Amino acid sequence: MRIGIVCYPTFGGSGVLATELGKALADEGHQVHFITYQQPVRLNIFNANIFYHEVRVPTYPLFDYPPYEVALASTMVDVIINHDLDLLHVHYAIPHASAAYMAKQIVKQKNGRNIPVITTLHGTDITLVGKDKTYEPVVTFSINQSDAITAVSKNLRDETYRFFAIEKEIEVIYNFVDVSRFNKKPIDPFRKVIAPNGEKILMHASNFRKVKRVTDVIEVFAAVQQKLSAKLLMVGDGPERPACEELARELGIDEHVRFLGKQEQIEDILAVSDVFLLPSEYESFGLAALEAMAARSVVISTNAGGLSEINIQGETGYMADVGDVATMSKYAIDLLSDDVLLNKMKEAAYQQALLFDIKNIIPIYEALYGRFCRMDDVSA
After folding, report:
1. What is the DSSP string of 93-147?
2. Looking at the domain covering 2-176+358-372, what would its CATH class be?
3. What local confidence, expressed as pLDDT, does residue 161 receive?
């Protein structure tokens, strides 16, 4: 199959999943065409089946905000026609689903082809941005015009039906992880640099937005630090990072906290972590948690959104209510104080991650694509 994948090229979960999906499909022999405004951060390999098409947005004095959606739709049309794509798979509804609808209509008019469009919903495109009255009518319309709709968790599917008048079935295809990539032995010299005296290592990774509640991570670690020797690794960057750094200084734990910024090879960092903290206000799925589990790091998270679909309370990790720093701190202290329990839960987390291995999910997408390829009936 010749598949067009439209996504954001950033470190966010939707872009990561879309890129890893495309790479895996290319490995299976499919021809994959990425369409976005810059090369995706996870697209760091050469594969003869992978093509990248940059969306160029002309700037004119007339436009305060260059019309990306129009440029994206035009690029889609060009790639569909010139590379004879079988389908478009767009990730994150805004603005990709509406741009895909526009491209579909143009292609139909130009050469009579009815290019199938599959839209995958990822989270804030539904739960935050999409609900804004400025966008809701277009989001609802373009999702309904998709030939197939998928969501990355049951929770997100239910939230979509709750907030939007969706008239079609939304299929749940879970996020996935390449377990072989994250199942790595810790690099001892790296661990010794971080924890020279054998301290336990906690970790958080995100885009440091308010919804991630990253200052809760600092508060949990401060409580842990009062009871046992530990280090904290903060991976990523974003608007809440300064607040975290300031809080760490105020609590007197800044010498035990390392802010590593954005990291592409996160698997090497996860490999040395014992506990992964994810106190988010909402996670449609929690891809960062799944990657941590694949690296045998025990996840302590909130029970928000789709996290309960991957993190099993008391078995693979622990969950608490949003903002319940005290309970999360107790879980972390109890876990890090008991090596037998810690190692048992690390193995359970890894076994749970195996259920979401990319090898199990790719065939589901291939079967979905197969249902829609070559829909040449223009009246459909």
Report:
1. HHHHHHHHHHHHHHHHHHH-----EEEEE-SHHHHTSTTSTTTHHHHHHHHHTSS
2. alpha beta
3. 94
